[in-house]
């Protein structure tokens, strides 16, 4: 059997693997990279997404460093009017295909094994991959490192395994089925039941309302409500710098005054920086989702919200929650939005990113996963050893709840502080399109833009808040570690 050779074998050609490779080939022009991925096309879970999915953050700081999205302009209509464009799922897929086909493969330094599964690596560093359709095995000698770009274990409705039973006569669908309803007018249900409280469920609710479904035809099972970032404070570029800094100052002030993570969110809500759908319900979840005030207004129109925990069985006419039941109109269409996009409690492969002959890509600035991967490639090339690299970018775990969020915030702030004080990294940030603020501030400084005054005293505000960030952050870390510890 032929043994191929490569410097870096990247398992996963999703957003994270691609962002890492894109940065690596810029920083180390001599290296060779091989991708292995089970999907038929680059882009990972975006291949499996529902057709009306879109980024919830601006396209302007998503993807890879070297390539912008086709449109990063300001939206002029819809719920996102006045804010930077959000690429649709189709655009995201086309973008990643372009990254692979027009940038990485033509470099002559990248090999891509699609429809192939990584099976492991032996002691001599030789990896085995197997074609998922062909069944053929290929061996690859990894000269430098194996790069695990599968840490997030993204799970979406079309591929996940349901954790509840569905009776034969109950109607169940996934979000991707909804746009096809027009093909069978006789099958359009009178009632819809959305299962799940996360961003996918919110996308489905907005889609139904925009499709003209009256809110009283919609029932919504929300096991937990969520805090949501107000998108107008998460915008890149000169015009939005003042709002971004205002929001960051509000975060610091909230940390100084609060006694818990939960209180941080209550304080941020008072300034409009955090949003929730139901003002009478305290959210128990925070997954960094970003939303506009317009979408919140639409979601509030749905008032038949069922809060009885997680569904265990879907029957025709009733939902079961363990021993409890809830009546639902017969013939209702249930939409499964219960996949956990990112399993926030999964700590399986957590630890430092650099581990000798392996790199495990993780967030180092939560929740910016593609930024984190691109920076990690820069560290791999420009810093001499794993201890230094790990010191420069410690994982900032994606936390699950308002109570544990201060841990991620603390890690973000500490990492940012380290980067600002490391000239090579500061210079890289100033030109990285994946950093929402770095290039903006660099451009404004070069142009002596008077709007930079918004940053006045910001560094001092960070220093003043740091003791309280650490106070809440360490308490949150203990909670987070308790939630994510592997079962013994
Ligand atoms: C609907 C949705 C919207 C989102 N929106 C945003 C957003 O706006 N902004 C944001 O920052 N994040 C967003 N996210 C988070 C998202 O997880 C990341 O943006 C990113 O796409 C994750 O990429 P990934 O490469 O880590 O994972 P994936 O996309 O899951 O890619 C991992 C790849 O690894 C492959 N793989 C796994 N195991 C193996 C193996 N053994 N052998 C071979 N291949 C393997 C898989 O086939 C897959 O292609 C969103 C997530 C979802 C679900």
Protein model, in words:
- There is one protein chain.
- By secondary structure, this protein is of the alpha/beta class.
- Among the domains are: 148 residues, FAD/NAD(P)-binding domain (3-Layer(bba) Sandwich), CATH 3.50.50; 124 residues, FAD/NAD(P)-binding domain, CATH 3.50.50.
- Strands 1, 2, 3, 4, 5, 6, 19 and 20 form an eight-stranded mixed β-sheet that branches.
- The mean pLDDT is 94.
- The site of flavin-adenine dinucleotide (FAD) has 31 residues, from α1 and β4.
End-to-end Cα distance: 41 Å
Number of helices: 12
Query: Using DSSP, what is the number of strands?
Result: 20
Helix content: 25-40%
Query: Which spans of ≥5 residues are poorly predicted at pLDDT below 50?
Result: none
CATH topology of the domain at 3-150: FAD/NAD(P)-binding domain
CATH class of the domain at 3-150: Alpha Beta
Structural class: alpha/beta
Q: What is the CATH architecture assignment of the domain at 3-150? A: 3-Layer(bba) Sandwich
Bound molecules: flavin-adenine dinucleotide
Query: Beta fraction of the residues?
Result: 15-25%
Average of pLDDT: 94
CATH superfamily of the domain at 3-150: FAD/NAD(P)-binding domain
Report the principal-axis shape.
globular
Radius of gyration of CA atoms, rounded to a whole number: 23 Å
Biggest pleated sheet: 8 strands, mixed
């Amino acid at each position: 059997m032929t043994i191929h050779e490569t410097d870096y074998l990247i398992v996963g050609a999703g957003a994270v693997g691609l962002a890492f490779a894109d940065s690596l080939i810029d920083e180390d022009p001599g290296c060779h990279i091989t991708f292995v991925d089970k999907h038929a096309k680059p882009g990972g879970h975006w291949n499996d997404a529902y057709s009306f999915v879109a980024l919830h953050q601006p396209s302007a700081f998503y993807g890879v460093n070297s390539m912008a999205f086709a449109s990063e302009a300001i939206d002029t209509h819809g719920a996102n009017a006045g804010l930077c464009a959000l690429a649709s799922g189709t655009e995201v897929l086309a973008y990643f295909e372009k990254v692979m086909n027009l940038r990485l493969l033509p470099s002559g330094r990248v090999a891509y094994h699609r429809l192939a599964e990584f099976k492991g690596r032996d002691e001599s560093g030789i990896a085995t991959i197997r074609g998922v359709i062909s069944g053929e095995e290929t061996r690859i000698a990894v000269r430098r490192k194996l790069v695990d770009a599968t840490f997030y274990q993204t799970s979406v409705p079309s591929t996940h395994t349901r954790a509840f039973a569905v009776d034969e006569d109950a109607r169940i669908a996934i979000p991707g089925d909804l746009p096809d309803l027009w093909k069978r007018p006789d099958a359009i249900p009178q009632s819809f039941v959305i299962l799940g409280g996360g961003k996918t469920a919110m996308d489905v609710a907005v889609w139904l309302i925009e499709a003209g479904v009256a809110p009283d035809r919609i029932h919504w099972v929300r096991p937990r409500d969520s805090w949501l970032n107000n998108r107008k404070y998460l915008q890149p570029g000169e015009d939005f710098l003042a709002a971004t800094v205002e929001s960051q100052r509000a975060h610091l002030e909230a940390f100084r005054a609060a006694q818990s993570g939960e209180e941080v969110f209550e304080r941020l809500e008072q300034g409009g920086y955090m949003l929730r759908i139901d003002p009478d319900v305290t959210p128990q979840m925070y997954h960094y989702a970003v939303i506009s005030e317009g979408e919140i207004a639409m979601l509030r129109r749905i008032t038949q919200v069922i809060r009885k925990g997680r569904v265990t069985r879907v029957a025709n006419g009733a939902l079961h929650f363990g021993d409890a039941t809830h009546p639902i109109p017969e013939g209702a269409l249930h939409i499964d939005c219960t996949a956990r996009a990112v399993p926030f409690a999964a700590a399986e492969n957590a630890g430092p990113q650099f581990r000798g002959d392996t790199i495990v890509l993780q967030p180092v600035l939560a929740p910016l996963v593609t930024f984190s991967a691109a920076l990690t490639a820069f560290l791999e090339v420009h810093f001499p050893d794993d201890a230094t690299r790990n010191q420069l970018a410690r994982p900032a775990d994606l936390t699950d709840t308002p109570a544990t969020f201060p841990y991620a915030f603390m890690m973000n702030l500490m990492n940012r502080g380290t980067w600002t004080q490391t000239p090579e990294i500061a210079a890289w940030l100033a030109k990285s399109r994946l950093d929402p603020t770095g290039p903006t501030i660099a451009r404004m400084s070069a142009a002596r833009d008077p709007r930079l005054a918004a940053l006045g005293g910001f560094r001092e505000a960070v220093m003043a808040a740091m003791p309280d960030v650490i106070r809440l952050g360490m308490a949150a870390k203990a909670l987070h570690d308790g939630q994510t510890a592997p079962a013994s």
